[in-house]
Fold this sequence. Notes:
Distance between the termini: 30 Å
Number of helices: 2
Number of domains: 1
Largest sheet: 2 strands, antiparallel
Shape: elongated
Radius of gyration: 14 Å
Strand content: 35-45%
Order of helices and strands: HEEH
Amino acid sequence: MAKKAVASLQTGSGREYTKVIKMVKSPKTGAYSFKEEMVHNDKLKDYMAK
């Protein structure tokens, strides 16, 4: 199913987005989790600066 989602992003204007996987530490337990988002290429630097 993931392959189908990725393949559909490559048609037309889908190449303007980047899948970002960010590691986030939980303040409660201290465990790390991963947060995945689709970010427009123009806003990628702003997203990574957070």
